[in-house]
């Protein structure tokens, strides 16, 4: 199996922790992921569309924040974007979502949140429920639950990499069905 190139919406500084987290989730990956950070959504889409034109061999995946609930039409809306013009057909099996954003994964693993934020984590301020993908993006941003006198509240740039390093893939798998779908596909492509 050749390398799986994953184009993800996020800062380049998340490449290593995200890659390590995915490798922990899919142990058979053994260095077979190449992560490409696209920063914002439009840049990530542009990079992926160019890659589809240039890379005829190997597997290409795009991983985006959905910014909204998964109503089953996320891929259709993506296809309607003006910059979604791949040179060849790209199906939903190449497009994966962090619903509604990466912070959903963090909510799925409260132990990781406690490991990073310690005593200043106000667990009662975190959204409740087992399905973290139903939590709205504003409620996911963790600022209220992490604000305290002994440190700054959650900041994606400062904390996301640390949280990715602590995340238990099984906890995220249980709480986020779209993450489960991504792992299933990665495992299939590596077999």
Strand runs, count: 4
How many helices in DSSP terms? Answer: 10
Overall pLDDT confidence? 91
Which outline best applies? globular
Largest sheet: 4 strands, parallel
What is the SS-derived class? Answer: alpha/beta
Low-pLDDT stretches: none
Radius of gyration: 17 Å
Whole-number tally of structural domains = 2
- Lateral arrangement of strands in the main beta sheet: 2-1-3-4
Percentage of helical residues? 40-55%
Q: Assess the beta-strand content as a share of residues.
A: 5-15%
Order of helices and strands: EHEHEHEHHHHHHH
Distance between termini?
8 Å
List its salient traits.
single chain, alpha/beta, 2 domains, 4 strands, 11% strand, globular
Word description of this protein:
With 191 residues, this protein is an alpha/beta fold. It folds into two domains: 4-101 and 173-190, no CATH class; 104-165, no CATH class. The protein is built from ten helices and four strands. The radius of gyration is 17 Å and the shape is globular.
